[in-house]
Structure prediction request, 515 residues.
Amino acid sequence: MKFFLLLSAIGFCWAQYAPNTKPGKTSIVHLFEWRWADIALECERYLGPKGFGGVQISPPNENVVINNPSRPWWERYQPISYKLCTRSGNEDEFKDMVTRCNNAGVHIYVDAVINHVCGHGVAAGTGSTCGSYFNPGNRDFPAIPFSAWDFNDGKCRTGSGDIENYNDPYQVRDCRLSGLLDLALEKDYVRSKIAEYLNHLIDLGVAGFRIDASKHMWPGDMKAILDKLHNLNTTWFPEGSKPFIYQEVIDLGGEPIKSSDYFENGRVTEFKYGAKLGTVLRKWHGEKMAYLKSWGEGWGFMPSDRALVFVDNHDNQRGHGAGGASILTFWDPRLYKMGVGFMLAHPYGFTRVMSSFRWPRYFQNGKDINDWVGPPNNNGVIKEVTINEDTTCGNDWVCEHRWRQIRNMVMFRNVVDGQPFTNWWDNGSNQVAFGRGNKGFIVFNNDDWPLSLTLQTGLPAGTYCDVISGDKIGDNCTGIKIYVSGDGKAHFSVSNSAEDPFIAIHAESKLYNLN
Ligand code: QV4
Ligand code: CA
Prediction:
C-alpha cells in the first residue's frame, strides 16, 4: 500500500495528469475568445490574487476567416497554419501574455486543434487570420506545409467522406468531423509538424493542452505526438515537468469509443458530470440532490484522478457538442451558481470554470439559431474586456469567474484541497450539506421549503463568514455569519427564496476577533 502511494505520488508530480498549477491552486478558467492583452491584465489584476491556477485560452494558431455567417466563434476550430496569429492577438502579444500570467502565478493551457485543418468545402482564396494562402480543394496548406498525402481521404470509407456512424471507430478516427479535413496522424511527418507547433508553445511557457476532438484521433497516434514534446520551460516550472494533457472525448456512454481508451495519454473531459449535475439541480427524471452523496465514481464517472470536470463548456452552453437541455449555464444564473458551487466544493476531478460572452440567444423549434455568434466585436475586431466599478465586466463579457459566489468557491476549493469528503447530511430530498475535513462546509437548499437546522460542520469553533452571500473583508463579513460551537455544530437557515440558496464557510473565512 505504502509503495503504491509513493508511486502514485511520484506519478502525480511528474506525469501528464498533474495540472502544473502552483501549489494550493486547484482550478483553471476558460476565458473563451478573450484577447491575449486582456488575459495578461486579468492574470495580474484578478486571477493571481483570487487564487485561480490557470487559463484555458482559445486556439492561438491561424484559422480560416468565415464571413458567412459573419465571424462565428467556431472559425477558430478550422486551422490554416501554426502561426500564432488570430483575432486574440499575434505572437508578441501571446508571449507577453504567457510571461505576465506565469509571473503572476497563473498558467496558460492551450486549446490544441490537431485532428484536422479547415472544412473541405471552404473555397480557396477565403481569407485567414494571418493572410496565409491555402486551398482545401487540393489539400494544399503551404504555410505548414501540408499537402494531399498528409490527409486521410484515402482511408475513410464512408460515402460522404464525413463521419456518418459513431458506432464505427474507424470512421470516427479516419473520416471528417463535420467536413473538417482530417490529418493522417500515423505519418511521422504530420506528427512532427504538430509536435513542432506544440513545442513552440511549451518553449514560450505554456503549462499544458486541451486536445480538441481527441475522440477523432487514435490514442496511439496521439501518444506518438505527446512523446515528442519537450518538458516545460524551467523559467517557471520545476525541471522535468511534463505538459498537462486533457483530452476532449465526449463519452456519455453507449458508443464503442470510451474515455478510458485515452487514459494513458493524460486526463479526459468528463461530460457526464455537467449533464448529470444539470439534471439533478433541475430535478428532472426524479433526480434529487440527496443522491449526490455518492457523486463521482459512484455515478459511473471515470476515476477522479483522470477527470477534467466542468458544469458547461463553450460547446454545450450553446447546443453544440453534447449540448443537452440539462446543461446549466449563465443563462440560468441561480441554478448555475449552485452547480458551480457544488462542483468546486466536491473533491471529484480537476475543475475548470467557464467564462463566456453574451450572445443574442434565440430559439426556433428548440434550437438556438444564433449558436454561431462570435465574441463581442467591432467590425470583426474582438472588443476589449472592460471592468465596471462593481468589478463585473462590460462589453457583453459575462465573466462568470468574477461572480462573487463563483470566485469565492474557487478560493474555497484551494482552502480545502486534500481534505476528505465528510459530514454528509441530506433530508432525503434537495437539502444537502457536506464538509471537507476540518477546513470547509457547505449547505444547499434546492427544495421549495425553508431549511433550518443544526448540523455537524467538522470546523473548529468560531464565527465564520458565508462566502456566498458576502465577503470577509478584514475581520468583517458583508454576508451571513455562521457560529460554530466547540462541538463543531452550527445552525443554518437557508430560505428557499434566497437569492442564492446555499451557504459556504471555510478556514479562511473565519472572523478572528469574534468568537
Ligand atoms: C458544414 C456541413 C458539413 C459539410 C461541411 C463542408 O455541416 O456537413 O461537410 O460544411 O465543408 C462547422 C460548422 C459545420 C460545417 C463545418 C465545416 O458548424 O456546419 O460543416 O464547420 O466547415 C466547432 C463547432 C462546429 C464547427 C467546428 C469547425 O462546434 O460546429 O463546424 O468548430 O468550425 C463532436 C466531437 C467533438 C466536438 C463537437 C462539437 O466529438 O470533438 O462535436 N468538439 C470540439 C470543439 C468544437 C469544435 C470541434 C471539436 C472541431 O469543442 O468547438 O467544433 O474542432 O461531439
Ligand atoms: Ca481524425
In short: The pocket of calcium ion (ligand 2) is lined by residues 115, 173, 182, 216-217 (CB under 6 Å). The longest strand covers residues 79-84. The chain has nine helices and 27 strands.
